[in-house]
Amino acid sequence: MFTIKVAIATNSLGKSAAGHTIHQKLEAARSYGFDGVEVAFECLDAHANTLSSLESREDRLRAAASDIFSKATSLSLSLIALNPFGAYDGLKEAQDVEDRLVEADLWCQLCQIMHIPIFQICSALYPLQESKITSDPKIIAANMRKLGLLAQKYGLRVAYEAPSWGIHKNTWQHIQEILDLVNLPNVGHCLDTFHIASKVAGDPFNVDSPVRPDGMKRLRNSLKELKQTVDPSQIVYLQLSDATVADPKQRGYPRKDLNQPAFMTQSRNCRIFPCEENYGGTLPVVPVAKTIFDMGYSGWVSMEVFHTDMFDTRSS
């Protein structure tokens, strides 16, 4: 049966750093008709930091997770994913891998408390030191297999995503290569219209031509390959967003980092809802979404909007 449910990321409903609480965000999600939410770890962590009566970080996070689940249940909202776990997939040193798996186990516990079915991980990103990671698919697959087996113990699916500025893994094809090596039924894709469209076709700082001259041809070829390669059952969930052109000088951006990759600047500050006319999206995200739906995908579709507006302190 073809079933689609629509969610939104909690950090797309206002930044915690701007004073927007997780309870306010859940209430907003319910009032605008969303079926569920992705729980961004930064929102969970911000809520946990208000629980000063508990001494340990782990206890504060567990208590915050329990409270978030209670609030979501009262609003008839599903909590669909915890994200984004990172700084893991390409690690070379055994001790670094083990240290991150300890943190991953805590995340799995938090998912269990919140009745969340999806543990989301992104490929290694800036500002992680490249000397700590490898591009070797066999090593990455071995690490991801360990994570997948850990998640299995908690009944979780692992959604593996390639942000368009990933250090080594930044396309869906890169992720598919790892998934084929991992070969676990609970480890699959997190596909994001922004990352696919921006990486293949976008030019993030080009106001006059935000899609590269050969961008649409490249995108059509990539989407044709996607349909031929990926079984829809391998897609854990789909994220939707578009973007406007980014400012390379980051004027007016709340969190400036002139050393970050261009796609990261665009993602942090310029991601908007698909077809959002007020802002004028620039990326060919609709063909990406259409292709994935035409493949027969059914499941959660989540909006991920990361824009400077999220730092507005107003509640509405």
Structure description:
The longest helix has 20 residues, at 94-113. The chain has helices at 22-31, 41-48, 57-74, 94-113, 137-153, 172-182, 193-201, 215-229, 262-270, 285-294; strands at residues 4-9, 36-40, 78-85, 118-122, 157-161, 187-192, 235-240, 242-243, 271-272, 299-303. With 316 residues, it is α/β, with parallel strands linked by helices. β4 (118-122), α5 (137-153) and β5 form a beta-alpha-beta unit. The strands form two sheets. An eight-stranded parallel barrel has the order 1-2-3-4-5-6-7-10, surrounded by seven helices. The protein has a two-stranded antiparallel ribbon with strand order 8-9. It has one domain: TIM Barrel (Alpha-Beta Barrel).
Task: Outline the secondary-structure elements.
Layout: E1 4-9, H1 22-31, E2 36-40, H2 41-48, H3 57-74, E3 78-85, H4 94-113, E4 118-122, H5 137-153, E5 157-161, H6 172-182, E6 187-192, H7 193-201, H8 215-229, E7 235-240, E8 242-243, H9 262-270, E9 271-272, H10 285-294, E10 299-303
Parallel strand pairs: 1-2, 1-10, 2-3, 3-4, 4-5, 5-6, 6-7, 7-10
Antiparallel strand pairs: 8-9
Task: Provide a brief overview of the structure.
The protein has 316 residues and is an alpha/beta fold. Helices cover 40% and strands 16% of the residues.
